[in-house]
Each structure stands twice: as C-alpha cells, then as structure tokens.
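Late entry, written up from scratch paper. The run itself happened at the end of the previous shift, but nothing got recorded in the book at the time, so transcribing now.
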Amino acid sequence: MKLNHQFINSQLAAYHSANRIIIAYSGGVDSHVLLHLLASIPELKHKLFAIYVHHGLQASAEHWAKHCQGITNNLAVKFQVLKVNAQAMQGQSPEEAARDARYQAFKQVLKKNDLLLFAQHRDDQLETVLLQLFRGAGLKGLSGMPAAINFGAGLLVRPLLDIDQQEIKQYAQQQDLQWVEDPSNQDIQFDRNYLRHEIVPLLKQRWPSLDKTVARVAEHCAGAQTLLSNSAKQKMHTLYDPDKQCLCIKALQEHEPLTQQLIIREWLDLLGARMPSQKVMNAIIVDILNARPDANPLIEHDACNIRRYRGGLYLVIPIKIPDLNELIAWADNNQPLNLPDNGQLKIKDASQGIAKTLWMQGRVEVKYRQGGEKIALFNRNGRHSLKKLYQEEGIAPWLRDVIPLVYINGTLAAIADYWISADFYGQNEACVQLFWERQGEVVSLK
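Output as recorded:
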C-alpha cells in the first residue's frame, strides 16, 4: 500500500517550514484518513489545526461537528468549527454556494505561510474533469484541481490527489477509523453524485484505469494552460492600467480574437473575478470591444458589470445608489457628515479652499445632481455644467450621479472634493477643505 505516513510526509516535504498546517476536516473518510496520517508525523503534529466548516444545511451537522471534536481530542490536534451561510443565491447551485462559502471561510482563517490541506483524491479529480468536459470547459477547466495553488494569504495543497479512494478506505478499515457519512452524497440529483454513482462505475467496468488516464489528461491540459496563461499574462500587463485597473481597448483589438479572450481572462483573474462563460466572453468581444466609441454597453458578470469608458475596459462592482432626491442638512459643519449609502464628507482646516467665514456662517446642505447645475470656478471664465466638468476630469458615467454636491445658503459651493465655486473660494486665509470618503471600492474584487 502506497498510502502511509512516509508518503504524506514526502508529499509535504517542500512545506515543512509552514507556520500552521490546517486540515479541512469534514469528518468523512477522506479527511479523517489525512488527519490520522498527519497526526502520526511528530515533526508536523504540533503545527496541525483541524477545521470543520458548519454549513447549517444538514440536520446532522451539529452531531458531525461534535464527532470531529471528539476525534481531534483523541489525536491531540487543535480544532475549530467555522459556521458559514451556505444558502444559494439566485443563479447559484447548492453545491456551488456551499463550496464558495467554505472557501471564503478558509481564506479568512489563513495567514501568511499557512498551509491548507484538502483531502481530495484521484477519483475526485476524475469527477471534476468529467464535469468540466460536460459543461464545455476550456483548457483551464480540463486541467482539473491543481496539487498546489496560492490560496488567500497561504497555500492550498492536495496531498492525496494521486491516491484513489479505494486505497483511502482500505487504510481507514485497517486502522479501524470511525467516520461520518453525509447522506446528501447519495443524492443523484446533484451532478457530481450522479457521475459518482451512476456513470463512473460503468466507465470503469470498460476502462478500469480511467482515473489514472484522466488524471494524466488533466496534467497535459494544465501544462498547456500554463504556457498560454503565462504568454497572455505578459501581453495583458502591456495594456493594463494599474491605477484605473482597466485594459486599453485599442491595444487589445490589435490582437487576434483568441488572444483577446485569453488576455481578458487574465485581467479578470487579476481582479479576482470568476472566469466568464463563452457566452459572456462573446458578448464582451462583440458588444463592448466592437461597440461605437460613444456607446455605453454593459455586460453583467459575477455580480459585477463589465463596461467601457474612454477606450478602457472596466470591471465595475455596482455600488448602492443613495436616494438622489434627498436633501441632507449638515447641521454641525465642524464634524464629518455621514451620507446614507454614500460614504462620508470630512473637512480640515487649510489656507485655501472654502472660505471659513462663509462655511461657518452659512446653512450647509448636500444634494445630488438633478440636471442643469452649473458652477463658476476660480481662474476660469464663465459658468460650467457638471456634465462638462465630469467629462474633462474623466469621471466615469456610472459614478457621476452619486457625487455629493455641497450647497451653502442654497447656492452650489462645491462638488465633493473635486471643485469649489469661485463665489466661495478663498486663499491665503482661513479656509476648509472637503474630503469625500467614498463607499467602498468600485473596480477590483480583491
């Protein structure tokens, strides 16, 4: 039998310097065997930390958590339960929701130089590749699960990926281990379970080594994907603006369509978005890249919007729109003003800005653009529409409506921290400067 503590130790040899070795411990046979093996390695045992993710989806979840607690106590391994909200959102499958919640929980726990171990094995890899194949995935999907990958602040490793489940169960029986069985694993309404119980056994009757050959295919695909990804990543960075986090559309269009898709995928990966379906990718190419320069198309993807503006391709996290008809009184204009659903306006003393006498003696209110507003600016002739100023400043259209406008005694005095009206502007005297602390990020998911 290949599966023993020497094998696991050799699989983790490159990671012995990790601060903590965290095991995703469900109480099932796979993770129990991995925990048992690691607990038998003295040089690693003091680093072990088992975590049970409580999804709250099964009536027995509390019982399983107690079972895991008892096993880890017997093995003298540190243990923690993480409770998560695994309810599926619109468009999500229950499996996907549970996995996303689980992964997010682990990312929050991992610290720098921590190692997270999953007990997925070669049969899991077979199911993963087949599922990706049936869903029409490309090379990345057909690469299956990597043996090691950066994950949160640490590293995710699957040391059992070259072991089949039969050997795992054989080890568990030899060691007289006690594990829990999740009844949902028998429910063939889930795609993975249907494959596991109905399809894969038939395939293995004809091709007994199917798990090994598919694992080899996944390795070939992973190698090809790595080469393509590295090349696309280099090209992506030549047309990526790190400040605006956008891609230059003109430069992107100089590449052939397939390369454009690869570059866009690397860009989305950089920003932390999931990979788009081919339907979404085609829409990005046709409806956004090839749109008229003055058009404002929008593609929804991963709870975000993909848009273009001034020759740039942007990934925008939709922000909550405040009540644009609301009039907000700045009652104590010595203190910051909280803007409902729109951050905070702050002030500080300065030698130029809004003249302090006008600020302190006036009635200060905040509104939002209704249309037709104009403002006179210091050292510029005439009065200027907000639309023109926003265009000059390069403020994206999807951000303009939420910019707070500051009025003093009913007259527009400032546009957030962008511009101050010439009627209220002061310099070389006591003044206040405005600072708008915006409501969260609007571009990157990371």
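The two ends are 43 Å apart (CA to CA).
(Scratch paper discarded after transcription.)
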